[in-house]
């Protein structure tokens, strides 16, 4: 059995869905389970519709309705026409409710965005069926996806590990191709929850790990995980292999290829994850699996492997420098600082400390007024906005080399590194620069690590 996940752009319209069907057809002997996102930008359109309902008291679903009804028509899916129309009616009623009470709780928001995936799986399953495949649409919550009630960022409960295979394996045995909603689950009270934006990846890896699938294929619109953001670095290229840790770090630090938590289930079971391009089927893609050293085929020259797997940047970052105003050696300072941030639900990305001071980074979106007030009781605080995190994900055994080369490059292009940290997972070296300089830094690092590899390869042999 394998799991095949297709993101929004891979199922964006009728012709994309036909294309997906073609890809699925090539894998039938491997007993696929499909996991789908909402069609195109439907999730964003649902959130926009809620905004309009809240602000103008109007229910406006024209874009969503048109996309789904046009697709049903183009694919001649009269069998699901009624069901789709019924779901769109339910959506209109929900939006009227939101418009009326002028309130959108996190729970209602999750119910609202669930419509995207509920619509897409029904349409895709009907299409597969219409061309002769034995497919059936499922809502993930009917297949064992049980989560906590942390709406918009829910976490799956342990019992999902047992119930998912109990529900899915009999379908596979019965030669059904399940087409399952990504992104959504239900809590124990029976309310719909979501696993965070981009959460369909996690739905797919969870099914694969729980059912002990041979592989998860994550079909995207890029040739796999790239060495850098192609919008910044023109000759960014796909990485053949990364470890689960590296993939997770890449996701956290700005490579929008996979959901940050998606690696967790497969890491537990060792299930390989393959990132493929649905627009370019023949490209080999990126394989995510256990540590590279264990996988390297004999005879591969270790020296020639670049020490760096990929370079990412995360923008709109705020740097906070906090220096204790108490005497040197005062204990409890760090825990006090962190508990203040935790109390205000502010998530910290990077940290660097000395005995009496700590620098940390946060998303610029947070309002820090209250935090600053509280921190000022024990420390002096300086908030600097307009920063970016540049992360170099790579082989930790060569971290000295990576650091030396990275800093030499920054010095050469005249960029000051304002803070540095080596991630606990030991595959990530991150540093802070001004946001305006980040793209240039990424380009220069990419050139040094990936385009002058032969030069450094020679140096290493000496
Ligand atoms: N449709 C959801 C989103 O756009 C989930 C996903 O695509 O994975 O975030
Ligand atoms: Mg999406």
* Quantity of strands, as a count: 17
Strand-pairing-aware structural class: alpha/beta
Approximately what portion of the residues adopt beta-strand conformation? 15-25%
Strand order of the largest sheet: 3-5-2-1-8-10-11-9
> What's the main sheet like?
8 strands, mixed
List bound small molecules: aspartic acid, magnesium ion
Walk me through the structure:
This protein is 42% helix and 22% strand. It is built from 15 helices and 17 strands. It is globular. Residues 294-303 and 454-462 have low confidence and may be disordered. The structure holds aspartic acid and magnesium ion.
Task: Explain the layout of strands and helices.
Elements lengths: L1 E5 L7 H12 L6 E5 L5 H15 L5 H13 L3 H24 L4 H25 L4 E4 L7 E2 L12 H14 L3 E5 L2 E4 L4 E3 L5 H11 L4 E6 L20 E3 H9 L10 H7 L3 E5 L8 E4 L2 H4 L12 E17 L8 H11 L4 E6 L3 E7 L5 H7 L3 E16 L4 H14 L6 E4 L5 E7 H17 L1 H9 L1
Parallel strand pairs: 1-2, 1-8, 2-5, 3-5, 4-6, 8-10, 9-11
Antiparallel strand pairs: 6-7, 10-11, 12-14, 12-15, 13-14, 15-17, 16-17
Helix pairs in contact: 2-4, 2-5, 3-4, 4-5, 6-7, 7-9, 8-9, 13-14
What would a concise description of this structure say?
The protein has helices spanning 14-25, 42-56, 62-74, 78-101, 106-130, 160-173, 200-210, 244-252, 263-269, 292-295, 333-343, 369-375, 399-412, 435-451, 453-461; strands at residues 2-6, 32-36, 135-138, 146-147, 177-181, 184-187, 192-194, 215-220, 241-243, 273-277, 286-289, 308-324, 348-353, 357-363, 379-394, 419-422, 428-434. The protein has 462 residues and is of the alpha/beta class.
């Amino acid at each position: 059995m394998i799991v095949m996940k297709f993101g929004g752009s891979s199922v964006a319209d009728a012709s994309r869905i036909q294309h997906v069907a073609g890809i699925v057809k090539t894998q039938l002997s491997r007993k696929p389970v499909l996991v789908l996102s909402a069609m195109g930008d439907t999730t964003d359109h649902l959130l926009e519709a809620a905004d309009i309902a809240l602000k103008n008291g109007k229910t406006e679903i024209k874009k969503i309705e048109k996309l789904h009804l046009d697709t049903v028509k183009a694919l001649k899916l009269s069998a699901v026409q009624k069901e789709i129309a019924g779901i769109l009616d339910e959506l209109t009623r929900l939006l009227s409710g939101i418009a009326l009470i002028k309130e959108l709780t996190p729970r209602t928001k999750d119910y609202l965005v669930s419509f995207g995936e509920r619509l897409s799986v029904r349409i895709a399953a009907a299409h597969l069926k219409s061309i002769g495949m034995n497919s059936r649409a499922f809502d993930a919550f009917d297949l064992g996806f049980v989560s906590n009630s942390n709406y918009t960022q829910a976490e799956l409960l342990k019992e999902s590990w047992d119930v998912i295979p109990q529900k899915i394996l009999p379908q596979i045995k019965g030669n059904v191709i399940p087409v399952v909603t990504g992104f959504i689950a239900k809590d124990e009270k029976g309310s719909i929850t979501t696993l965070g934006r981009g959460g369909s990846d996690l739905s797919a890896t969870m099914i694969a790990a729980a059912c002990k699938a041979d592989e998860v294929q994550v079909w995207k619109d890029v040739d796999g995980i790239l060495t850098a953001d192609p919008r910044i670095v023109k000759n960014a290229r796909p990485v053949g292999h990364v470890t689960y840790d590296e993939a997770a770090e890449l996701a956290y630090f700005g490579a929008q290829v996979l959901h940050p938590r998606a690696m967790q289930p497969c890491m537990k079971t060792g299930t390989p994850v393959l990132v493929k391009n649905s627009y370019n089927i023949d490209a080999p893609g990126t394989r995510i699996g256990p540590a590279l050293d264990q996988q390297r085929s004999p005879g591969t020259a270790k020296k020639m492997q670049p020490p760096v797997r990929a370079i990412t940047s995360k923008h709109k970052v705020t740097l906070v420098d906090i220096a204790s105003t108490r005497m040197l050696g005062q204990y409890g300072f760090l825990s006090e600082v962190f508990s203040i941030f935790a109390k205000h639900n502010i998530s910290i990305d990077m940290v660097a400390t000395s005995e009496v001071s700590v620098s940390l980074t946060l998303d610029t979106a947070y309002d820090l007024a209250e935090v600053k007030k509280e921190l000022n009781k024990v420390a002096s605080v300086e908030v600097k906005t307009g920063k970016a995190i540049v992360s170099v994900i790579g082989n930790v055994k060569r971290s000295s080399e990576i650091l030396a080369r990275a800093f030499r490059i920054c010095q050469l292009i005249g960029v000051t590194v304002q803070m540095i940290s080596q991630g606990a997972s030991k595959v990530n070296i991150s540093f802070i620069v001004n946001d305006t300089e980040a793209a240039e830094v990424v380009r220069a690092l990419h050139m040094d690590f990936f385009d002058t590899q032969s030069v450094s390869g020679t140096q290493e042999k000496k």
